[in-house]
Amino acid sequence: MFAKKFKVEGLILVPIMEESHNYPSYKAHYQTLSSKISRLIDRLSDFLRVHLSATHANHLFEGEISKRELYGLFQPYTDNPKLKLYPMGVSNEDQILKGYESYCLRYRYPAGDVGKEDLIVDGVHLSQSVILGIEKQAAYIPTLPILSLEANENCFMVDSKNVPTIYDDVSFENVEEWNSLIEENLGFRFEEIVKFVQSL
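The chain above was modelled as a monomer; its predicted structure follows.
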């Protein structure tokens, strides 16, 4: 939506290397996803009439962020003391922190260095990783992820126990407020976009 509104290219950062590092048993699977995601984004770009592209690094970024700043990286608003300090004390603590650092730094080096003219748009649940990564070198707008589609859950879809895949039949009853925003800016309703992706 921001790319269309500002009439600029939207660059989607895909954490292929970071996820491969974090989940080595899925490394081969993640590596094959890169070209598939790029093709999907190209098709979606044409469908939405927005200049979009996807990119990922071919290596992990490291050596620029203090380890002490990485604990609790993906739980910036939790009251749980264990989550605030995660992964402190776990057996592969250093390995996890290495992946965390690269996750942050991919915002700093999306395709060359990030600059003052760049705008990072990502979920508020990732705010700590974005802020550490860009180090005030770019602007950042935090967004709210889509609310869970499960009627009995009071959380974001990203935290749902039943995260739908693009192949699932999705209920759109709980996303009507999102639809007006999406339709106003992109010209399509949320379900139309999902159905297009499902058809690819």
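The mean pLDDT is 88.
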